[in-house]
Amino acid sequence: MKYLAAYLLLALAGNEAPSTADIKDVLSSVGIDAEGDRLEKVIAELQGKDLQELIAEGSTKLASVPSGGGAAAAPAAAAAGGAEAAAEEKKEEKVEEESDEDMGFGLFD
C-alpha cells in the first residue's frame, strides 16, 4: 500500500512514470525502507496504465461490496450487554481487593 501511495503522489505531482528510485526517495523521506521485489511488482503492474481509469474501476468494485447497515446493530447491542456484564465483574473484583486491605497488613508496617 505504501508503494502505491508513493506512486500516486508522484503521479499527482506530474511524474507520469515514476521510477523505482523516485518511489524510494519518497519513502525514505518519511523513514520507510523500500523492498525491491514488491516495489518492482507495483511498478510493473502500473506501467503503461492510466491511473484515472484504474481509480474509476476500483471505485466501481468497492461500490459492489456490501457494507451491511442492519447487521451491525445486533453485534453492537450484544457488545453493549457484554460491557455491562464486564462492568459488574469489575465491581465484584474491586470488592474482593478492598477486603484484602482490611486484613491488617499495611504497606509501611
Automatic annotation (TrEMBL):
Taxonomy, superkingdom: Eukaryota
Signal peptide limits: 1-21
GO CC annotation terms, alphabetical: cytosolic large ribosomal subunit
One Pfam family of this chain: Ribosomal_60s
Matching InterPro entries: P1/P2_N_sf, Ribosomal_P1/P2, Ribosomal_P2
Ranges of biased composition (kind: Low complexity): 72-85
Protein's GO biological process: cytoplasmic translational elongation
Region of interest (Disordered), ranges: 66-109
An example molecular function term from Gene Ontology annotations: structural constituent of ribosome
Keywords attached to this entry: Ribonucleoprotein, Ribosomal protein, Signal
Subunit structure: P1 and P2 exist as dimers at the large ribosomal subunit.
PANTHER family assigned: 60S ACIDIC RIBOSOMAL PROTEIN FAMILY MEMBER (PTHR21141), LARGE RIBOSOMAL SUBUNIT PROTEIN P2 (PTHR21141:SF5)
Family designation: Belongs to the eukaryotic ribosomal protein P1/P2 family.
Protein name stated in the entry: 60S acidic ribosomal protein P2
